[in-house]
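pls design
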């Protein structure tokens, strides 16, 4: 028989079991509510065992199926607060109060935070300091990062991300002993923190040593790290006691009555087949395109590098070609200069030969003058004039200078 009112929005439900306001099936809402409670119980058990990361994942899954699950949202806020994420915790508590203003533990949590504004201010300062430290760490400025992280941890002792970053910096600085101390602080709060466990395994820590570290850390640091919203450590200690799902009446509360235990053994093969199909679909629709994209990106990178190399080689070839052209032009100019110098040498050689001939002619005239008689005065005068004309060509040049010029040529 169909419900008269919708268990989600309170609207009327038709005879087919669908709400006339939100158009949702009541069977679907019950199944979603049961799944939400299932994940909430898993998250609660994980939180009791100190596995805060696993509990957080389970509670987030619980809220995906039913965002109005007040118990799951309040517990998720407590876990976020324990891990140092105060902003996320406040967000979940505010949403919880909006869904159910009355008889809600989140209202008390928010009230106590408002009564301590310095606490929120310190944690906001811690978040800003952590961001500054993270920037320093990215730039390999480890000393400045360590200073900021110590300031951050002094303001918020539950800030697990700060402890993990401090441990990573100590590992980079080759200080595994100090790094293990910071990791132990994380393990004392969150036993199965994947990042902390990864660091310990990278440092060569055995599983037995990790378990001992977690147990010792909880004994030493539990009071410091769980002093406000921690899980119940001693009888009567508040406030995060174990939360049991309650049967509540109201339009936003899903009913848990008349649930039957389901035997899922017979469906194991079907579940396995469905899982294989889903895995194959995920591979072909999610992983395969990513693989192809990576291959295309790699190919484009190789092509870009090849084109850059080819352009560089072409530039070198062009530079060498221009150098060869310049050298050829210089060689031609040198050949032309050599031809011009050879012509000059030939001209000077002709002039030297002419000078030699002139000297020989001048010597013959002088000899003829000493042997001739004074009988032919006119002939002597003509001979003297010819000698004078020849000697005019070598006026001011001695015989030795003429010989030196001939030898130098």
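designed seq:
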């Amino acid at each position: 028989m169909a419900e008269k009112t919708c268990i989600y929005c309170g609207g009327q439900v038709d005879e087919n079991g669908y709400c006339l306001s939100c158009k949702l099936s009541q069977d679907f809402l019950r199944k979603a509510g049961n799944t939400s409670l299932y994940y909430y119980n898993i998250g609660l058990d994980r939180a009791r065992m100190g596995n805060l990361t696993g509990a957080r994942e389970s509670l987030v899954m619980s809220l995906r199926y039913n965002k109005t699950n007040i118990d799951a949202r309040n517990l998720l806020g407590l876990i976020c607060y324990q891990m140092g994420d105060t902003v996320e915790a406040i967000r979940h508590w505010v949403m919880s109060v909006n869904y159910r203003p009355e008889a809600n533990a989140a209202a008390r949590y928010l009230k106590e935070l408002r009564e301590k504004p310095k606490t929120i201010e310190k944690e906001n300062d811690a978040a800003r300091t952590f961001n500054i430290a993270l920037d320093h760490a990215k730039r390999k400025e480890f000393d400045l990062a360590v200073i900021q992280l110590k300031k951050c941890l002094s303001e918020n002792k539950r800030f697990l991300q700060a402890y993990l970053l401090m441990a990573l910096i100590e590992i980079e600085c080759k200080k595994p002993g100090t790094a293990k101390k910071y990791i132990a602080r994380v393990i004392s709060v969150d036993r199965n923190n994947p990042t902390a466990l990864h660091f310990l395994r990278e440092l060569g820590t055995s599983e037995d040593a990790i378990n001992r570290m977690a147990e010792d850390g909880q004994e030493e640091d539990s009071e410091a790290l769980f002093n406000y919203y921690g899980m119940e450590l001693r009888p009567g200690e508040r406030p995060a006691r174990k939360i049991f799902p309650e049967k509540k009446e109201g339009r936003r509360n899903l009913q848990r009555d008349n649930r039957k235990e389901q035997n899922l053994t017979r469906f194991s093969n079907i579940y396995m087949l469905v899982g294989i199909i889903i895995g194959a679909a995920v591979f072909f629709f999610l992983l395969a395109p990513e693989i192809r994209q990576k291959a295309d990106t790699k190919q484009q990178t190789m092509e870009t590098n090849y084109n850059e190399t080819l352009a560089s080689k072409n530039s070198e070839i062009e530079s060498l070609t221009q150098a060869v052209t310049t050298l050829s032009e210089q060689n031609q100019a040198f050949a032309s200069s050599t031809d011009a110098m050879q012509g000059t040498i030939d001209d000077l050689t002709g002039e030297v030969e002419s000078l030699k001939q002139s000297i020989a002619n001048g010597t013959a005239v002088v000899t003829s003058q000493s042997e001739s008689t004074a009988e032919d005065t006119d002939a002597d005068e003509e001979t003297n004039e010819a000698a004078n004309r020849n000697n005019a060509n070598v006026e001011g040049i001695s015989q030795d200078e003429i010989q030196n010029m001939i030898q130098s040529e």
